[in-house]
Amino acid sequence: MSFDVSVVGRWSAPHVFDVTPDSVSRYESVVGGPSPLYAVVPAMDLVFATAAAAVRDDPALRARVVHGQQDLLIHRPLPVGEKVTLRAAVVGLHGKEKGTTATIKVETVDAEGDPLNEQYVTEFYRGVPSEWAIGRPAPSTGLPRDSPPAEPLRVESVALPVDLPRRYADASGDHNPIHLDEEYARAAGLPGVIVHGLAVLAIAVSSVAAEAGGRALTRVSARFTRPVAPGSVLTTKVWPHDGSYRFEAEDDAGTTVLGAGLAVPGS
């Protein structure tokens, strides 16, 4: 098993996605309403293709990957009913004792080429250590580093449906079998099928958006710290943070599943 370091910094060909009202509606019906996280949907196939190229399309390596972090910077909402164009590149490969991190950057523009959003997808290949230190990791500027205050502004719990992985896969285009196939998930070293991290994040962010009073969010970032089982109860806690909000989420066992969350509202 090996990584192709030559992909670092190599941008993909342009990928065009049609932001149809039906696609937006299906996503919103799964995550509980309008969400800035819909911005990940147009990028889904492109991210998978870019990540696969980094591991030479090795299925054994791809079976060991989990989503480590997502950082979404929003310049403008996606234009519903119009086409957008995306490109992606692996911008960093960094080895650790317990695995290797691949950082993928995605840029999305409108029909005139004006920026809509950029996002950093951090993937972690469990049990695949390396000494790579190539390119750059996702930006950490502005992200929370210390422990949150004792008392949150908001605490909100949501029961995650047992069929959430299947429904989210259909709405988002993320059909990774660790979310859909019990046998495959266990073979990959997981306790069983797990909920998509981005689904968990979208549901948690709805609590943050409620605290923000409907102001549009211009940045959403969080680390995926533990897998979430279908049927769990997700509890999101929100705190003030330098004019923005930080958040974390726990499962029904009290285990933190989203950490170092940051949500920045627009003016």
UniProtKB/TrEMBL annotation:
<comment type="similarity">
    <text>Belongs to the enoyl-CoA hydratase/isomerase family.</text>
</comment>
<dbReference type="GO" id="GO:0004300">
    <property type="term" value="F:enoyl-CoA hydratase activity"/>
</dbReference>
<dbReference type="GO" id="GO:0006635">
    <property type="term" value="P:fatty acid beta-oxidation"/>
</dbReference>
<dbReference type="InterPro" id="IPR029069">
    <property type="entry name" value="HotDog_dom_sf"/>
</dbReference>
<dbReference type="GO" id="GO:0004312">
    <property type="term" value="F:fatty acid synthase activity"/>
</dbReference>
<dbReference type="GO" id="GO:0006633">
    <property type="term" value="P:fatty acid biosynthetic process"/>
</dbReference>
<dbReference type="Pfam" id="PF22622">
    <property type="entry name" value="MFE-2_hydrat-2_N"/>
</dbReference>
<dbReference type="InterPro" id="IPR002539">
    <property type="entry name" value="MaoC-like_dom"/>
</dbReference>
<dbReference type="InterPro" id="IPR054357">
    <property type="entry name" value="MFE-2_N"/>
</dbReference>
<dbReference type="GO" id="GO:0003857">
    <property type="term" value="F:(3S)-3-hydroxyacyl-CoA dehydrogenase (NAD+) activity"/>
</dbReference>
<dbReference type="GO" id="GO:0044594">
    <property type="term" value="F:17-beta-hydroxysteroid dehydrogenase (NAD+) activity"/>
</dbReference>
<protein>
    <recommendedName>
        <fullName>Dehydratase</fullName>
    </recommendedName>
</protein>
<dbReference type="InterPro" id="IPR003965">
    <property type="entry name" value="Fatty_acid_synthase"/>
</dbReference>
<dbReference type="GO" id="GO:0005835">
    <property type="term" value="C:fatty acid synthase complex"/>
</dbReference>
<dbReference type="Pfam" id="PF01575">
    <property type="entry name" value="MaoC_dehydratas"/>
</dbReference>
<feature type="domain" description="Peroxisomal multifunctional enzyme type 2-like N-terminal">
    <location>
        <begin position="36"/>
        <end position="127"/>
    </location>
</feature>
<feature type="domain" description="MaoC-like">
    <location>
        <begin position="158"/>
        <end position="247"/>
    </location>
</feature>
